Amino acid sequence: MLSHPKFEFEVYMSSQAIDFPRVSVIGLGKLGAPLAAVMANGGYKVIGYDLNRDFVSAVQRGVAPVNETGLQDMINKVAARLTATEKIEVAVSNSDVSFIIVPTPSKPDGFFSLDYVLSAIEGMAPALRAKQSRHLIVVTSTVMPGATDGIIRQTLEKATGLKAGRDIGLCYNPEFIALGSVIHDMLHPDFILIGESDTTSGDCLEEIYKNTCAKEPVFRRMNAVNAELCKISVNTFVTTKITYANMLADICDRLPGADVDIVTTAVGADSRIGKKYLKGAVGYGGPCFPRDNRAFAALADSLGARSDLARATDAMNDYQVERLERCILGLVGEGARVSILGVSYKPLTAVIEASQGLMLGKRLVDQGVKVTAFDPGVATEGPATDGWLTWAETLPDALNGCDLAVVVTPWDAFNTLPALVPDQSKLTIVDPWRMFSGSEFGNSVTLVSLGRGRMDQNAL
Ligand SMILES: NC(=O)c1ccc[n+]([C@@H]2O[C@H](COP(=O)([O-])OP(=O)(O)OC[C@H]3O[C@@H](n4cnc5c(N)ncnc54)[C@H](O)[C@@H]3O)[C@@H](O)[C@H]2O)c1
Ligand SMILES: O=c1ccn([C@@H]2O[C@H](COP(=O)(O)OP(=O)(O)O[C@H]3O[C@H](CO)[C@@H](O)[C@H](O)[C@H]3O)[C@@H](O)[C@H]2O)c(=O)[nH]1
Asked: Which residues are recorded as binding NAD(+) (predicted)?
């Protein structure tokens, strides 16, 4: 269902196996499964472990346990070096380095929970205690600043009787990957972030990445708390940048003659700012970005520091759904039929966590609008919405009989819209990503491009 662009990982595949260190990956989910494959691709012998037996069985059979671009192709190539086990002690005793990549869900106070990480460490402890050689534990899950050298270290030392940094290595080593391009991002990282308990552990990780990345990456090595703060800072900074572009788009909506793309293209040409993640459109979603500013603010609160910027970014991101809703309600009346095109949080993924499309749909339904949704990447039965939403199986079905369609996720598939809209039907298309210029559609279609000032401000 999802299109899989080809990445050039084939040419980097190590031709010979590297006997040492052997790698285990604890948690074979959206991040862990690709990491296991990339480590095997770099030449390492890799053994995976997951509580989910289906994932273990999939890896044992050479099948990708999660849907990620290029993952199955890579698993096919590295099958001889990649295996999995249902026993955590087998994973630990057959490896020298363990990457822990289990969930760290947000708690109501904004902090990330360590329950899964600590439970994984406790599960590993008997096998770690029994080992004759020094093991390296690498926490890859996103954790709060202070966690690795705090409760994680204490739990590890208590459960194993080993001293971290002396008898056993402990590193924090988060990945900067985006879903849909995880393998590409792992092979071509901007930098590798290592928070280390000791130089030997940091050196070991550095050596691993020299073999697994497509070319020698930039390394940033530091203590764990700096690395933890760095990870969450990258995400909060980038979300603030996206939000800045969205704020400009909102202003441009209301400013006749203004065009947010022209403004952000020029602003992004300043090398201090840069053009990436500067598209004024809809709010950001997904499993990572929306929670990071809340965690950052919670951290600042706990320390007595101010976090106005993180809170403002979070609040402004919430406002983006309201902005879209207001625009749509200004264009259609109660009882109208609105189609939401795209509920995945971005193209090329089926993930619907913090989906702008679903949040918009709920708000519109609450206002008496009849809402249908379609997404090229989400299963045809649609997400569980307790029936408040009608799910269309195809794009033509979604357009059939609707008064307004809004492109919330800019899937390439929506470029076919002009060819699908029947000439005679009256339809308004709201285009926050400015995929269309207007000339593609016949006279029966009203195109509302957000982020471009219009003389008609009724819809805003
Ligand atoms: N997905 C991303 O884009 C992304 C990016 C950067 C960082 N992260 C971070 O990586 C971590 C994992 O995220 P994910 O998206 O891979 O999650 P996921 O839910 O897709 O996968 C986690 C896996 O861990 C397994 N698991 C849970 N407890 C376990 C245990 N005790 N032992 C073994 N396996 C266990 C689960 O069964 C699951 O398969 C989180 O901290 C997340 O914040 C994710
Ligand atoms: O100019 C942009 C770029 C992205 N987005 C939105 O931002 C969200 C996140 O997109 P993306 O960064 O592609 O995906 P994620 O998989 O969420 O990855 C982010 O979150 C991960 C988990 O922390 C980090 O590892 C990555 O570096 C970080 O990019 C999506 O809703 C996008 O639509 C925008 O709104 N405007």
From this structure: 50, 104, 142
Residue 28 Cβ < 6 Å to ligand 1: yes
| Cβ 38 under 6 angstroms from ligand 1 | no
CA distance 219 to 165: 20
| DSSP per-residue string spanning 333-386 | -TT-EEEEE--SSSTT----TT-HHHHHHHHHHHTT-EEEEE-TTS-TT----T
The DSSP string of 70-83 is: THHHHHHHHGGGEE
Catalytic one among 230, 252, 288, 402? 288
CA pair distance 106, 96, nearest whole angstrom: 30
Report which protein residue has its CA nearest ligand 2's atom 18: 178
Global pTM reads 0.92
Cβ of 142 closer than 6 Å to ligand 1, yes or no, is yes
| Of 412, 255, 279, residue with least CA distance to 342 | 412
Which numbered atom of ligand 2 lies nearest the CA of 242? 36
User: Which residue type sits at 392?
Assistant: A
Paired tokens of 29:
């989910």
> Is 142 one of the annotated binding-site residues?
yes
- The string of pLDDT tens digits covering residues 421-458 is 876 678 999 999 999 998 888 888 999 999 998 645 45
The phi and psi torsions of 111 (rounded to 5 degrees) equal -70, 155
148 is in an annotated binding site: no
